[in-house]
Amino acid sequence: MNGTRVVSVAEAIVAGLHAVAASNRAEVLYRAVRDRLVNVQQLEAALVAAPRVRNRRALKRRVDAALAGARSFLEETGLQKVFTGKRFEGFTRQHEVMVEGELFVLDMYHHQTRTCVELDGAAHHAGTEQWQRALRRDAILASVGIQTVRFSYADITERPAWCRQQLSEVLERRR
């Protein structure tokens, strides 16, 4: 092809993510995963194949978070900085639940207490329609005994200790 090298989406993200504004890097990576342009294992393989890439440590932390189930900056923050330690080891991230023929993907799910944790970024819950969809979803999950606890972007980023305390109390009461 006249010397032009074609790379995979994973290789392009690994090689070029440093050129994206720091505030947008998480969204670029997670959007590619959510839109199924790439899977997390492909990103991990591309990172392993490129040992000398700019901002490697930060990219490795982000890929590791994605491997652990994070699908957004907010979920990454929750995983790495908020819901850490033994208290929160029982959670499964990106847990799929089918209710009444509808598939729901839960940000975090605690099987023992049937507790779902949703991390609500403003972009995904900004309008009335999105909020009504979330309330409908919570009601459907409650109909099968799953309680949803929601934390906002501001909660997660500005008061992580409060989030930990609230969730710990919910888990204790549901046990």
Protein model, in words:
This protein is of the alpha+beta class and 175 residues long. Helix content is 49%, strand content 17%. It has eight helices and four strands, in the order H-H-H-H-H-E-E-E-H-E-H-H. A hairpin with a 4-residue loop joins strand 2 (102-110) and strand 3. It is elongated.
Which second-level CATH architecture of the largest domain applies? 3-Layer(aba) Sandwich
How would you describe the shape?
Answer: elongated
In helices, the fraction of residues equals 40-55%
Percent strand equals 15-25%
Radius of gyration over all CA atoms, rounded = 18 Å
CATH superfamily of the largest domain: VSR Endonuclease
The averaged pLDDT comes out at 93
Strand order of the largest sheet: 1-2-3-4
Structural class, by secondary structure, is alpha+beta
Task: Give the secondary structure arrangement, pairings included.
Blueprint: H1 9-16, H2 25-34, H3 40-49, H4 56-67, H5 73-82, E1 91-99, E2 102-110, E3 115-120, H6 128-142, E4 147-152, H7 153-158, H8 160-174
Parallel strand pairs: 3-4
Antiparallel strand pairs: 1-2, 2-3
